[in-house]
Amino acid sequence: xxxxxxxxxxxxxxxxxxxxxxxxxxxxxxxxxxxxxxxxxxxxxxxxxxxxxxxxxxxxxxxxxxxxxxxxxxxxxxxxxxxxxxxxxxxxxxxxxxxxxxxxxxxxxxxxxxxxxxxxxxxxxxxxxxxxxxxxxxxxxxxxxxxxxxxxxxxxxxxxxxxxxxxxxxxxxxxxxxxxxxxxxxxxxxxxxxxxxxxxxxxxxxxxxxxxxxxxxxxxxxxxxxxxxxxxxxxxxxxxxxxxxxxxxxxxxxxxxxxxxxxxxxxxxxxxxxxxxxxxxxxxxxxxxxxxxxxxxxxxxxxxxxxxxxxxxxxxxxxxxxxxxxxxxxxxxxxxxxxxxxxxxxxxxxxxxxxxxxxxxxxxxxxxxxxxxxxxxxxxxxxxxxxxxxxxxxxxxxxxxxxxxxxxxxxxxxxxxxxxxxxxxxxxxxxxxxxxxxxxxxxxxxxxxxxxxxxxxxxxxxxxxxxxxxxxxxxxxxxxxxxxxxxxxxxxxxxxxxxxxxxxxxxxxxxxxxxxxxxxxxxxxxxxxxxxxxxxxxxxxxxxxxxxxxxxxxxxxxxxxxxxxxxxxxxxxxxxxxxxxxxxxxxxxxxxxxxxxxxxxxxxxxxxxxxxxxxxxxxxxxxxxxxxxxxxxxxxxxxxxxxxxxxxxxxxxxxxxxxxxxxxxxxxxxxxxxxxxxxxxxxxxxxxxxxxxxxxxxxxxxxxxxxxxxxxxxxxxxxxxxxxxxxxxxxxxxxxxxxxxxxxxxxxxxxxxxxxxxxxxxx
Length: 763
Known about the structure:
Organism: Streptosporangium lutulentum
Distance between the termini: 75 Å
Shape: elongated
Strand content: 5-15%
CATH architecture of the domain at 5-179: 3-Layer(aba) Sandwich
CATH topology of the domain at 5-179: Rossmann fold
Keywords: ATP-binding, DNA-binding, Nucleotide-binding
CATH class of the domain at 5-179: Alpha Beta
Oligomer: single chain
Strand order of the largest sheet: 2-3-4-1-5
Mean pLDDT: 82
InterPro entries: AAA_16, P-loop_NTPase, Sig_transdc_resp-reg_C-effctor, Tscrpt_reg_LuxR_C, WH-like_DNA-bd_sf
CATH superfamily of the domain at 5-179: P-loop containing nucleotide triphosphate hydrolases
Largest sheet: 5 strands, parallel
Structural class: alpha/beta
Pfam family, one: GerE
GO molecular function, one term: DNA binding
């Protein structure tokens, strides 16, 4: 009964009132497998131990042919006079039979209560026949003076059926109603430890979460993993050793689906291959049907709790159930369905980018288009396969260029060597294709940014931006501006990053592919956070958070995107959004087990959310890129610095972050980490000696240039200090040096000189 404390308290209260002479009814509702039957079974066991007689029955689909079947079976479990009555006297016919049976049930219940209190438990009343429901409508009131209590359970379902009406009426007359919800994370963890004998490790916990808190699915999963030796206990932690779902899960899902009609099962198997969610229109086109023709099957799947409806799509309620349905589809059938989708795809009404022109979209049904769709939906390995297939086909005029798409995906996954090879091939292929050439310039900029070559990234992105502007491709403009903004931010040039952000990179990508839009929106959010704080970033990121987990492009365009989104959500007091990001990141990792990048990103996000130093340490060691390793090490250093006993460890981790940020030329991030070290009493030299003229614009140091840029924008000394992670006194010192070298006396003059220099740079 893990996670059912309040519900069990209500049942115990019912048992305490069995002996009292008043109507006592408790109603239990919930989805299939949520624990209704277990609750009734436990109640019967406790009642028997307390000397309370129990009459237990249940309805079933075929039992509807037997009037009053659940009540009769409940009373026949113990000796009851109704057995003799049915065989001794002739049955009346028609409605008279129902009245006679109801009278016999009532008489039997009275006789049972003559010898002591009685608990009646009836399960699965969603399948009860009308006579049973009518009897239950009146029996509790008629027997209110008897020591009898009623515990009635049914599945919840969309719509309003007769069982639902019965429960409503009984509740109006004083019955207690219990709705069993999915188990929370704590209860799932406790149940996992109960079954496995040890707390679940990280991968196992992610798999257990796919049961969606459904106790039956979770129990079958854990028991099956244990029976099939797919779990081992090491260091007091249960760790997953296999990836296939155990047979027990498939058996439980098959039983669930066997309750449905043949057409409904076929519909679920076909749509499951598309993904966990699907559009009814898309499903109809795939199956060569009209939406109207599919309506009965869809209604049955919804009523059975297999599917749930969102605003736009239908979704398999539990990820574990969906995975089982997919795995049970024979591989040749799966391949045939994939082939049909890829070569003759239905017109999917939702994402607009499939119908847009320019490089934001491509010919509907082409491998490039399908690869981008799979990428957006988090099927990264499949997306890579489709992109690799696309580069083997003739691609003249295809927008975007297949090899560029492949190289971009590889770069996002930090497979930089393969990305460089693909980029070189794309460059050779782009001769005579201006739009492709512009895309390659932006791709090269992204690769340079990933490698920490910020000057090269800025130079190549500016080349791509110019070409994209001439060619009139807004998505490519957006991608170039995103690289320029992020590279400028890391280089410590916040004013230039802000200027790029003000070109609205996210806005220019509206209507374009999610992979372009999310990259731009994240960059704009990072710059907004740097300038105005986390609240400002959150105000522009609502759509990114809300799109998870249906669109995971926001998590795949940067290995630290998930961690950063968690950090912003926590900084703004929004733990629900932080949890949503972690869930989406872990889901992405689970669905792509052959790729290491998503797994490390999920560990980083989880470590931040749970304040887990071990997870952050693994992320710092596991990230492939220097900047990402530095980010995780900085997060770990910040966490350890809160614990005064861990100061030395915090300093070590922050020093690691400083080293890795330096390897990525991330000047701004280095400055922030030095500030954190100063707060711990550590100081780090960070200047280099160079020869400068003694006066004039060329005499200014890099730090003095940064101060000039911020002050010229109107920032105060305090605001400038916050942006540069230095003290206000240091800003004042640098500003005096600037005034002296430029021979000026006011901020107004500085702003004028700065504007002139930006238009006519010298030196």
